[in-house]
Structures are given as structure tokens and as C-alpha cells.
Amino acid sequence: MTTTATNEAVGKARGRRFLRNVLWTWAGVAVNVAVAALLSPYIIRTLGEAQFSVWTLSLSFIEYFWLIDIGLRAATVKFSAHYRAAGDLVELRRLFNTGLFYSTAAGILMAGLSLLVSGRVAAFFRITDPAFPFLLSVVGVSWAFGMSMSIMSALLEGHQRFDVISRIWITGLVVRSAGTALLVYTGHGLYQIGFMMLGTQILMSLLTWIAIRSLVPDVPVSLGQAAFPVLRRMASYGAHSLKVLVSTRLLGQSTPFLIAYFLPLPNVAYYTVPLRILEYVFDAIGRIGMVTMPNAAELLAEGNTDAIAKLSVLANRYSLTLFLPLTVFLTLYPYELYARWIRPEFAANSAYLVPVMLVGYTIAAGQHNSISVLFGIARHQMYSTLQLGEALLNIAGMVLVLPRYGLIGAVWVVASLMILNRGLLVCLLLSRELKLNPLRYATSIYLGPGSAAGLTLFVCWLMKSRIPGDTWFSLGLAGLLMTAVYAPLAFAFALTPEHRRMIVSRAQALVASRRA
């Protein structure tokens, strides 16, 4: 077989593996979205906006404890993918055991901190519900189990076993959600829900341990192989990842707490619930990025920079293509959806925030995989600084606008900073690293999907008077109309000619096989 034919075969195999991993991660996202669509409104209707806000705040605060990770999880994904591609089993073992030793110690520290600070946090934010400090303690201990196993799941990611990771995630999500719904249905509250989360996290940790022993048996657990020079190398890479992790936590979790500080507590639910739908779909794109990162690391190890550039364009373009249907639908029917999903009073206090949020998330959706590529090629240092700047500006903006303009001011701050940093500046950064023309790079991502979405929005806007979305049937009909218009336009404008031919060929083969 010639070198060209060999490279083509390797490229096709990598493409199939990439698609398989993305589909598995999407399966986890789909289950998460389905569960949230059913569970969140049920909890709000049963326990009320205030109790839901307490639960949301407890989860938000505990997320900060992941900073103890100091970026080692990201380093494990990056280096395990690299060592696996290079066939360096010795370094892979040292990497895994060093990370495992640290993450276990960090998990113990995390559990202790959650028990110590819970009361002080509740007092500082003036949250008087007695369930809040209890939840901080119990949820913190449950998160500690997750941290102790985080290096193991990172090793699975580096080995591109996203199918296994997704199965474990789906299992834990279904068990936790079904248990939570049953507890609420039988009259229990936040205390019991906290214990349910703890039990589920222990279950997921055990499943992750079993998966590692089964799938990566040549990387045994041996603390004797943990080495300080390896930790230093991981921390050197992880230092910038830690900066991004700090920034991400500040961006995601500081705003709900500032809302609780400046505004009445139910406003936390009015802000987080509409944001949650966008976050779930954005998470689907983030899962593509999880697969993009180790692939970029492998391509860098092989010296194939042209393939990295192609991967960046296509991963971003297709991610944006998948996000835009939500943009179109929520631009036209934000109030109608939340009124049906939860209740009209809730929609009146939250739906008006959605269009502003959509602008920021849509622009960022077209560059999310650029961030993953920067991590995969270990050129994420400048991005980490920019991300921290976005987080600090977000906090300053919230302090200024929340007392004066309320929630609408908050979402304008979030959207504006997201467009500037995770849209424009990330595009410029990756273009520089890959020696691409930034305007051409951005156009190759946004033009095709944006054209399809713009035409779809125009057609659906013309039809809205006939499909008002005032019932579930009407909303479903609007969704079907949008899909019928958007799908062929996206096929024509967003897909590459190669992928269009592949889809047509497979469709023809499927039809022929059924006829036979």
C-alpha cells in the first residue's frame, strides 16, 4: 500500500472514531437534556422557586472546589493522548499514577473544606434556609469522590474511550434523576436529594474504577511510580488550564451568587433556568471539543498541522450548525416555551432574557472547538489570560449593573464579554497559531450555517402569526416547520461537498439495501 493510500486509510479511521466518540458524548447530553426538561419544572412546581434556587446555589458553590485540581485533569488528557500515540508506556504509567495520587489527596481536602465552610458561606450571602449549609457539606463530599476519580476518566478520554465515559455518565444521571423525582414525589426535600447525589457519585466512581482496570490493564495503579518531576510537568501545562478553570467557575457560578446578594432569591431561578437550556445544547458542542482536543494532540504528535487546521474549521462549523436551530426557535418562541414548560408567571420573569443570551452563545458556539484545539496543541496560554480577564470583568459588571438594571443588565454583560473573548479573540488566537487568515477562517465557519439560519428565521417569522406557539401542539408544529426549512438549507450551505456526497451515497445504499 502506498504512503498516500495509507494516510487516507488512517484519516478515514480517525474520522470514524471521531464521529463515534461524538455520538456517544451526544447520547449523554441528550439524556441530560431530557432529564432536565422533565425534572427542573417538576422541582420548581413542587418545591418552589426559592428551594430550587437554594439547590442551584449549593451546586454552584461546590464547583469552586474543583480548582484544587490545579489543571492536572486537562494535563492527563493531553499527555495520555500524546504518550499513547507515541507508544511511550513508561511515561503513561508515571503520568497516571502521579495524577491519581494528587487527585485522591485533593478529594480528601475538598471533603474537609466543604464541611468547614458551609455555615460561613450561608451567613455571608445571607441565605437563611437551613438546607443550604447542609447541602454544601453533603454535595461537597460527593464531589470529592468525583475528584478522586477524575484522573481515571481523563485517562479514558486520552485513550478516546468516550463510549465508556458516556455510559457511566448516563447511568449515574438516570439513577440520580429517577431517585430525586421519587423523593420529591413522596414528599421529601433538599436534605434527601443531597444524599441521593452522594450515593450516585460513589456509584459512578466505582464504575470508573472498574472501567480503568478492564480497558487499560497495562497502566496499573502503583503509587511508587508517582514522581514529583512528572507532577511539575503536569502542573506546568495545567497552570494555564487552572487559569481557565478558575475563569470558567467564576463565569458560571459567581453570577447566581451575586444575583442572590443584590436581588430577591427567586431571581436566581429566573436567571439559571433559561440559561440552562442554552448550556445543555452548548454542552453538546463542548462534548465535540472533548473529542477534538485529544485528536489535535495526536495530529500534533504526528506533525500534521494541515489536518489540525481542517479539524478546527469543520468541528467549529458543524458545531455552529447544530446550535443554530435552537437560536432560531428561541428567538421566535422564548415566552411561549417557558410558559408551557413551567408556567406563565415564570416565563414573564425569565423569557425576556433569552434573546440577549442567544447572541453571545451563538457567536461562541462557532469558536468553541478553537479553544479545544489550543489546548490540544498546548498553545492555550494567552487564552487562559483572556478568559480570566473575561471572568473578572463579568464580576465587576455584575456589581455595577445588578442593583441598577437587574437581570437584563446581567445578561447584557455576559453576552457582550462572551462575544468579545470567546468569539473574536479566540478566532484571532487560533488563526495566529495555525498561520491562517482570521477573516477567511471566520468566514469558513460562520457564513454557511449563518446563511441557512437566517433564511430559516425569516421563513418561520413570516409563519409565526399562523403558528403562535400557545399550545404544545403549536410549539411542536413550529419546531417541525423550522426543521423542514433548516435541514436542507444546512445540507446545502454548511456541509462540505465531500460530506454531502458521503451522506447521499449512504442514503442511496440504504434505500438499495431495503429494496433488495
Radius of gyration: 23 Å
Q: Given the C-alpha coordinates, what overall shape results?
A: globular
Number of domains: 2
- Total number of helical segments? 19
This entry's quaternary arrangement is: single chain
Spatial gap, N to C terminus? 34 Å
Largest sheet: none
- The ordered H/E elements are HHHHHHHHHHHHHHHHHHH
What is the overall pLDDT average? Answer: 80
* Beta-strand content: under 5%
Helix content: over 70%
> Given the helix and strand composition, which structural class is it?
mainly alpha
Number of extended strands = 0
Catalogue the unreliable spans. Answer: none
Which key phrases capture this entry?
516 residues, 19 helices, 86% helix
